[in-house]
Specification:
alpha/beta, Rossmann fold, 2 domains, 6-stranded mixed β-sheet, 10 helices, 11% strand, globular
């Protein structure tokens, strides 16, 4: 069975990561290009690392495929079609959603993915008259919990990579041979900046290291917590505290000169 063959209305949900990009490439290969029955959609929250945006744009240009860039809007129709140049890069769609809700997404009410990504895609496709379609989602065979969760979803979400037995090894091997790649912080083959740059669901150690490498990343998140008077995740430090922590760490060693080490002699 060819899991990447498309012969009915299908939305290819492109997250902007290596895995979903590889899924798109397989679709293009198995269908001799993008089928008329398919649309490729990328939903930008405004908090993706700019390297992700460049990667999405490069995939479109290198492979000659139209990728529809969508963003949440608080006013009807609930979405806007943008492109790399006009896309939000300072968290504007995400902030507009928080303002509309007047509370933060959190570990108990994770509405951000639905409101910022899934619904803008659905509303855009509905505007084209697409009310009954399947969705290709970039989840691999080595992500069994995500596969099970996705297949329990009431919507028709398909995981062609998982069905074809594709693992992260195959994805990374593919990208190692390409003339371009996703240029973000990567650990064990996984981009730490995938999706929103400092998502409150990332591992605390990863979050802190990302703040250390660029404290300005945390300012937007700290500002949202401050203006709403709540936290994204009570199980991790507040973003303001992360900023203060990495700042104090640097101050601790300011003005201290090192000495020559002869331990190896």
């Amino acid at each position: 069975m060819n899991h990447f063959k498309i012969d009915s209305p299908t939305c290819i949900s492109f997250s902007g990561g290596r895995t979903s990009a590889y899924m798109l490439w397989r679709v293009l290969q198995e269908n001799n290009g993008l089928p008329e029955e398919a649309k490729v959609c990328f939903a930008n929250t405004g908090k993706e690392d700019e390297a992700t945006l460049r990667f999405v744009d490069r995939c479109s240009k290198e492979w000659g495929v139209e990728i529809i860039w969508l963003e949440f809007r608080a006013e009807p129709p609930g979405f806007a079609v943008v492109d790399f140049e006009s896309s939000s890069k300072k968290g504007e769609p995400f902030e507009a959603l928080i303002t509309k809700k007047n509370y933060l997404p959190n570990t108990f009410a994770r509405f951000c993915t639905t409101e910022l990504k899934i619904l803008p895609m659905k509303k855009y496709l509905a505007s084209l008259g697409w009310n009954d379609f399947a969705t290709f989602v970039g989840i691999r065979a080595d992500e069994p919990r995500r596969v099970a969760k996705m297949r329990d979803n009431k919507d028709e979400k398909l995981t062609p990579l998982a069905s074809a037995g594709v693992s992260n090894f195959e994805v990374l091997d593919f990208w190692s041979k390409q003339p371009f790649n996703l240029e973000t912080v990567t650990v064990d083959g996984n981009s730490l900046l995938s999706n929103c740059d400092l998502c409150y669901l990332k591992k605390p150690a990863h979050l802190l290291n990302l703040v250390k490498s660029n404290p300005e990343r945390a300012i937007w998140w700290a500002d949202q917590e401050s203006r709403i008077g709540a936290r994204f995740n009570n199980a991790i430090p507040a973003y303001k505290d992360m900023i203060n922590f990495v700042s104090n760490q640097r101050e601790l060693f300011d003005g201290i000169d090192g000495i020559d080490c002869f331990c190896g002699d």
